[in-house]
Amino acid sequence: MSLLIKNGKIYRNSSLTRKNIFIKQGKIAKITSQNLKAEKIIDAKNKIIIPGLIDSHVHFREPGATHKEDFLTGSMAAAAGGITTILDMPNTNPPTTDLQRLEEKRQLAKKSVVNYGFHFGSTDDNIADIGKAKNVASVKVYMDFTTGDLKLDDYEILKKIFTSNKTVAVHGENENIIKALELIQHSKNHLYLCHVSSKEELHYAKRQKIKNKVFVETCPHYLFLTAGDINELGNFAEMKPGLKTKEDQKALWEGIHNGKVDTIATDHAPHTKEEKMQANYPYGVPGCETMLPLLLNALNEKRIELKKIVQLCCENPAAIFKIKNKGRIKEGYDADLTIIDLDLKKEVKNENLLTKCRWSPFDSWNLKGWPVMTVVNGNVIFSNGKINNIKAKEVQYHE
Ligand code: DOR
Ligand code: ZN
Ligand code: ZN
User: How far is the CA of 377 from the centre of ligand 2 (A)?
Assistant: First the structure.
């Protein structure tokens, strides 16, 4: 199949140029001013085309909690949010902590309509499998409590995991971030700090930053909500780590501008409304459908540049996790593309969401700037509010 996307303003090498994208067999074959013949033609009508977003941190809940989400519904939400690749977390039930479970998850993920990859989980006795796990983005270490039962404390065990043959992705807060930074100093591995939420954590992460070794992720909820929002949203604004102060939020925005923040990822963590309303509610909020609209709205408010959005949501995740042929619009790369309309105004509405949990802490927010079409491996997966159920692929990594 060949596809020509014409009349788009293509984001490439930090600028926008009007070109046509010729796609063949799921790859960007040519970026050209010519009108090449193709089996299918899409008129981008002067809209901006960016690389499809890579969301390095989602919880799609398979296996074990498919009443909250599954690879199909989660990936539909991702596609509607302009995300063309997701990396799924291991705190499922059972957790993805041995080779057989990794294979099982690979099978389950085949229903995904966006490309997918996996973070491998760690326990106090799976170091051999961590070493053997193939084609995973990282080994994920839970150093603080959250959904699932994967928290690790033993320093000697942590030391082994931190010196395994994988990038180490950490769920941790406060002093455990300091512990993780200490552990990575004695290792040649990279450290990916998930969901950094406070000024202090950001300060520690980058004060000790050994060049190109420690990467910082933050999430939309820390950029657009603060602890004050819990008054109105209640448990629907409770996640781990929790929302912080305006001052922390300011530091994260500064981190985005000064390069201390490396990625923005959703930490898409759906739980049902019923579960969230219980006294012992679970932590987490969904985010795949709202991350890009929130960022594009911020762009319209001149709080962030398109260049930063592409860097933090496309280029950097691909580089940090060494994902092959993604994160840029480039000949030879996979045809994962997101067409955005910066003038489109729409309200976030719970009832319109595709995530199985069908709620968002951003319900009723009016946002200007939305993805209008998402192309995955050269297939139009999301357009005009509709999903095309075409299966995507597992990502591959450079060594
Ligand atoms: O709030 C959270 N929810 N934080 C996490 O780290 C995990 C996630 C989940 O899986 O529910
Ligand atoms: Zn976490
Ligand atoms: Zn998470």
Answer: 29
* CB 253 less than 6 A from any atom of ligand 1: no
Q: Which ligand 1 atom sits closest to the C-alpha of 61?
A: 10
pLDDT of residue 396: 98
Q: pLDDT tens digits for 125-150?
A: 999 999 999 999 999 999 998 888 89
Q: Please give the pLDDT value at position 211.
A: 60
Domain borders along the chain are 3-49+332-344+367-387, 54-320
Whats the size of the chain, residue-wise?
399
pTM above 0.85, yes or no: yes
Q: How far is CA 69 from CA 76, 156, 350, in A?
A: 11, 35, 15
Among 88, 129, 262, 267, the one annotated catalytic: 267
For domain 3-49+332-344+367-387, give the fold: Urease, subunit C; domain 1 (2.30.40)
SS (H, E, C) 222-244: HHHCCHHHHHHHHHHHCCCCCCC
CATH number of 54-320: 3.20.20.140
